[in-house]
Amino acid sequence: MKIISFFNHKGGVSKTTTTYNLGWALSRLGKKVLLVDLDPQCNLTGLVLAHQAIDDDFMNSFYQNRNNLTFDAIVNKIIDGAIGSELAKDGSIYPIDQENLFLLAGSLKLSELDSQVTAALKITSGLPILGKIITGFFDTLENIAKYQDMDYLLLDLSPSIGGLNQLALMGSDYFIVPTSPDYFCLQAIHSLSKKIKEWHLEINAFKQTTKINIKNNPLFLGTIQQRFRLRNSAPTKAFEKWIEQIRNAVNQTLVPQLQTINCTIGASDFSKVITENLPYDLAQIPDFNTLIAISQRSQKPVFLLEEKDLKEAKQFGSAEATSKEKIEDFKSLFERLGCAIIDLTQSNDKK
Ligand SMILES: Nc1ncnc2c1ncn2[C@@H]1O[C@H](COP(=O)(O)OP(=O)(O)OP(=O)(O)O)[C@@H](O)[C@H]1O
Ligand SMILES: [Mg+2]
Question: DSSP 3-state assignment of 147?
Answer without folding.
Answer: helix
